Amino acid sequence: MKTKEEPMPRPTKTAENSDALDELGGALAKASADSLSGPRERLAESLLQSALTRWEDPQTRPKLLASLALATTTEEGAESLREFLYSSLFAQVGIALEDRPMDITQVAETLGVPAININAAAAQVWGVVLYRYVLKMEPIASASAEELVELLSPTIQRYLIG
């Protein structure tokens, strides 16, 4: 006789999850500012390396995965991630670039691209995160971070510099 499976526990928002997102946002903001003050043709490479460095960290990854799980299973989690992306991340990028918080439109204007390009670049990265760390789809799951940066940077770069 088949027994009824226990439902998976719902992910919950914790301060650790929020701290992990804030750390990711700060790292991406710094990478963005460094890239804009350096060779602009390496913007995507720098941002992607920074993101993957955080996701590869065994201390940070579980917290980021918990935030992602929460965002994909609850409206509160989705709102929290949207808030992080629209407010915290772009605010940090603005502070790193021009000592003032920015929204997505202002970041896009600073980069000289439509705001939808910023979303497209982020969607590319989140897709890789989903394939690599959640679904563990091969060969992305076992590719080196360097291979992924080399593969994805040209596409993300096109989004960010038009």
Radius of gyration: 17 Å
Cα separation of the termini: 60 Å
Strand content: under 5%
Biggest beta sheet summary = none
Mean pLDDT figure: 80
* Secondary structure: helix percent: over 70%
| SSE sequence, one letter per element | HHHHHHH
- Rough outline: globular
Total of DSSP H or I helical runs spanning 4+ residues: 7
The count of strands amounts to 0
Q: Enumerate the spans where pLDDT stays under 50 for 5 or more consecutive residues.
A: 1-11
The structure class reads: mainly alpha
What does this entry look like structurally?
The protein is mostly helical and about 160 residues long. It has seven helices and no strands. α1 runs antiparallel to α2, α5 (about 105-110) packs across α6 and α6 runs antiparallel to α7 (about 145-160). The protein is globular. The protein starts with 14 loop residues before the first helix and ends with a helix.
Properties at a glance:
single chain; 162 residues; 7 helices; 73% helix; globular; disordered N terminus
Topology (elements, then pairings):
Elements: H1 15-37, H2 43-56, H3 61-73, H4 75-98, H5 104-111, H6 115-134, H7 145-161
Helix pairs in contact: 1-2, 1-3, 1-4, 2-7, 3-4, 5-6, 6-7
